[in-house]
Write a structure and sequence with these properties.
alpha/beta, TIM Barrel
Length: about 350
């Protein structure tokens, strides 16, 4: 391992835009299929699922993989594998999206099916805290193109369960922005905020800067992708004034065809503009790049120095939903020599 890779792995950092289902590798998918299918999928067939050239192809692949998550034990297994890999990369805290909206739709709208699944996820989280020193928060993610009532059910479930499970900290709004914006979810976001949940939103991934403005207008605290903000100088200034946490996913954007290359990604431009940018892997098993590799590519493709990588790590802690005292502790450790 060369010196910069070692530095990146030792650097304490948070991952803030990570979909549990998107961490399932082809080999893990084969293991899940062996549990459930009369004719289990082969490794070559699994690997073929992960080959796509655009955002629509990615959505279809994501759905195919998620269908192999059936029982609580499947979710626990996938979550533990994810947490092991995070710890290996020097991630000390993760805020992970769970596609609750997808689970509801595929389980015939049975909201009660989710509790056993979540208990499996919690078993993995508690084990990771104990054995790996990794803290994990959960974000309940709704699918914007599944209709507003479906999203409201997801957010209500998050509010209902967080009294018993404080690891549920936020709600998210993912899915295909081209089919539905943020404004229809204004009331649902307000209700989630009133219930004590934090608000995240995918915005500006496959749409223009107007979608990011709209996401801000409904109260979104942290934004995923925000690729198109680079086209609107006024929006860049607004994001800076608000200190909005930006969950950037360069390799994801390249693989889904919405950005031509890592070098062309606005990461550097946003960083130089003083925005609260963080690096994330989104769906690492699908895109072939984990969080450590995103830091490595920031160094090789956009010239981020060690001090700038350290700043990205500090940003990830600052933009997290961790308590202030915990943030301060990690920020002191990030500032230490490596």
């Amino acid at each position: 391992m060369d010196d910069i890779q070692s530095f990146i792995r030792r650097l304490p950092k948070a991952e803030l835009h990570l979909h549990l289902e998107g961490t399932i590798t082809p080999s893990t998918l084969v293991e899940l299929s062996q549990r459930h299918d009369a004719r289990p999928i082969t490794l070559s067939e699994a690997e073929a699922l992960y080959q796509f050239t655009d955002f629509t192809g990615f959505i279809e692949a994501f759905k195919a993989v998620t269908r192999q998550l059936i029982h609580a034990e499947d979710y626990e297994f996938a979550a533990w594998r994810m947490m092991q890999h995070l710890a290996e990369q020097g991630v000390v805290h993760a805020e992970v999206f769970i596609s609750v909206g997808v689970i509801y739709m595929w389980r015939n709208h049975d909201a009660e099916c989710f509790e056993p699944i979540f208990e499996g996820l919690e078993r993995a989280r508690i084990r990771a805290q104990r054995e790996l020193g990794l803290s994990v928060y959960w974000i309940f993610d709704a699918v914007r193109h599944f209709t507003v009532p479906e999203a409201e059910r997801v957010f209500e479930k998050a509010a209902q369960m967080r009294a018993e499970f404080p690891s549920i900290v936020a709600i998210g709004l993912g899915g295909d922005e081209r089919r539905c914006g943020s404004e229809p979810f204004r009331a649902a976001f307000a209700q989630a905020r009133a219930a004590g949940l934090r608000l995240t939103n995918h915005a500006g991934e496959t749409t223009g800067p107007e979608a990011i403005w709209e996401a801000l207008a409904i109260g979104s605290e942290r934004l995923g992708h925000v690729l198109s903000a680079m086209d609107d100088p006024e929006l860049i200034q607004e994001l800076k004034v608000r200190s909005t946490g930006l969950e950037l996913n360069p390799t994801s954007n390249v693989r889904t065809g919405v950005c031509s290359s890592f070098a062309a990604h606005p990461l550097r431009r946003y960083f130089n503009a003083g925005l609260l940018v963080t690096l994330n892997s989104d769906d690492p098993a699908f895109f072939g790049s984990d969080i450590a590799n995103e830091y490595q590519l920031a160094h090789t493709e956009q010239g981020f120095t060690r001090d700038e990588l350290r700043q990205l790590a500090a940003n990830s802690i600052r933009a997290s939903f961790l308590p202030a005292a915990t943030k301060d502790s990690w920020l002191r450790k990030i500032a230490q020599p490596y």
